[in-house]
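Proteins fold reproducibly. Next comes a concrete instance:

***
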Amino acid sequence: MSQVLSHASLRFALAQLDFLVGDIAGNTAQMMAQAIHARDQLHANVIIFPELSLTGYPPEDLLLRPSLSARVTDAIEQLRSVHGITMVFGLPERGPSGLENAAWVLRDGERIARYVKHKLPNHEVFDERRYFVAGHDACVFDCHGLRIGLTICEDIWHPEPARAAKAAGAELLINLNASPFHVGKAQERLAVVAERARELSLPVLYCNVVGGQDELVFDGGSFALQASGDLAMQAPQFEAGIYVVDIDLASRQLLATTQAQLPDTPASIYQALVLALRDYVTKSGFKGVVLGLSGGIDSALTLAIAVDALGAERVRAVMMPYHYTADISRHDAAEQAARLGVHYSSLPIAAMVEAFSSTLSDTFSGLGRDTTEENLQARTRGVLLMAISNKLGYLVLPTGNKSEMSVGYCTLYGDMAGGFAVIKDVPKVMVFELCRWRNAQATAAGEAEIVPTRVIDRPPSAELAPDQKDEDSLPPYPVLDEILRRYVECDESAHDIIAAGFEAEQVRHVLRLVDINEYKRRQAAVGPRISRRGFGKDRRYPIVNGWTIGK
């Protein structure tokens, strides 16, 4: 089939797709199907896929497997069978000096251009210098008289690769991406790419991947910018799809098309968490999820996200009351489960905790009660949830937030037990905000609030001791979260934080808790990163160290 071309314009399809890392055969089949759809239904001349679309991103040490090259070669042979549309896609490919993060341009079975990524990020969550060698040459190819330059992801954050493409004759720039989400990232991308467009007076097509991959969330949000830096097309965040944009061949101007509205901060965080959980559970093959529903706000938010991600039929909530569980907590948990329509059960743990205590009585003889007895409650609950997981094939969702994970306000093998901690990178103050936001969405749709108002209004408590409140041993959450943000995300010292107006003893106490609980976090379940710096890929601290707090 020959390409369909208007006498006046060229049509590009930006394939903002959700790939499964390592599934080269499945990713190839998806690319072929979407290329044919773009050619036959959307009448596109060129389809653009994201960075490393054949393998998914990030493939990490799968790139070191000896069989990688053979699988990539097989995939390319299949892609060669698609004619009538020019395909631009990313792949890992062995070059003279080592493995390269490359892009191919394939037309009617023939490779007409090849580009190798210049700038290999080795910061935050990126580790590309472990795997790839950098390219140095510009790549420009012709498509119906239009000269098109290629760049890959990090390249667009630096002026040199785009300048090289312009010097080689590019009249339009394509940028293939696997750019992960954090709060405010979409606006940062737009600003940086607009600067490149204005610098060189080149229109830019920015194609990003979408989907959850372990602790990373890729939000899509692909776009097209005029040479002036003005927006010509904005694809939505967190939605897979094919988004088209035309260029007028006479004026070299992009023709305005889809203009999706980027969500505000709480909406973007919530959608990122939903997408991350859905992809983790579905791609991993779990039948559903189970969580302990305590009647508190953290488990309430986790339950809401789970239902929005998977549907009520794939979610189980379990209340596990003990002597210190308030009646109001039992009522609120049951009420939320009923509102969301999930399977709900109550499994009292008193007999099991007392059995543990009895067994340990001789060992603990002469020793007073302390947090050990509190932790026994949490660990009993963890045992029950893991048993349900084993029996039903359901993934356990821990419900701890970033504030708790930071200061160790969590129990190893207890409330930390599970496989995917969906609010692990969400500070406590944001937990409240997300619950209010989700309730507002429900109200606007004429539905009942998802999280009972009383759950939001009650003082947070682990309910592991009589009349226990979180703020008995921690600063108020607005204060705690700001100290943590400065220390964990911004690397400020105790001196810096105290100088900003925070009480010195409080700061040192919080920072000490962060530092001594690294061993807990290293054993925590993976969870989606939504901040500039979460506990995981981009914050790797030694467990045993002699770092002195305050220096």
Notes: The radius of gyration is 26 Å.
